[in-house]
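Fold it.
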Amino acid sequence: MQFVDEYRDPVLIKRLSAAIHERVKDRQYRIMEICGGHTHSIYRFGLQELLPSNIELIHGPGCPVCVLPMGKVDEALVLARTHDITLTAFGDVMRVPGSKESPFQAKAQGADIRMVYSPMDALKIAMNDPSREVVFFAIGFETTAPSTALTIINAARLGIENFSVFCNHVTVGPPLRAIMDNEFFDLDGFIGPGHVSTVIGLTPYDFVADEYHRPIVVTGFEPADLMESILWLVKLIDAGEATVENQYVRAVQREGNGAALAAMAEVFEERPKFEWRGLGSIDSSALRLREPYQRFDAELRYSVTPIKSPEPEGALCGEVLIGQRRPEECPLLGSSCRPESPIGALMVSSEGACSAYYTYVHRRLVTNGERP
């Protein structure tokens, strides 16, 4: 296939849907799509409606903005307000609510907070004004960590002294393990994240099959990708086979991206513990800067004090993130929590499950008079 339209071919998708319907048995299939990008594709293209009623798709913790606990946003805003710095962040992060305000709201009230498209943009700001301290609010899974690592390597090579990183990069394996160790764990298989896997490859998922005896199929983001991965999972589940499969062969290699992994290994090491929204503290689930690069660590440079902020009252963000509740079960969705006035990060992010449900389902139901 050469063009994206081919992955959205209605004839192909209907054929895959028919194959799934023919293949399923008289049992329930509970499949978690780990990545928030997959969640948006599922809602956008109405894929659940093309599946048998006994296949349930569960949303997982693969939204990088969503898994960041509210306290981390508060810590970043303390940095911006109490130190004479320029705080830079991705667009999604700018709208994520802290316990009192979002970065955009803090910016409107006078804090020097700027949106950037990459950590290199933040470094350029620092290079253009050596008198100004610039901090990049780094978030995301292994997808975005290599760009942060390469930016830090460049800063060291160029001798830039007024640049640092507030590092909140996380890794995909430990939260999966935490979900499977949960007493409420009841999943039959996983749709593996595509973007992360272009970096880390397939080997980091081996424990899902070897230790927890569940199949996982790494896949792309188009409807044909997802429908084929579900067909593969149905076959594996029925056969009782626990393997790691790669449907996304056009982008993912088993060994991953060697250059990206090397940059990460040079700059980062595992944190002993890190707090996740909905999952609590998880061992070795995030990254921090290694000793040779710690002069670029904003937490050390500014002695950042950890803040633990409670979730907003009534919001189900944490439970939705780990698949225990669905977005439509949250009493705030569509009322007090909307894209223009988000209460939780899941409504803000372009990969958030609540944002996907609100955009592609809730508004249609309201328009049709099916939901008050």
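The CA atoms of residues 43 and 269 lie 36 Å apart.
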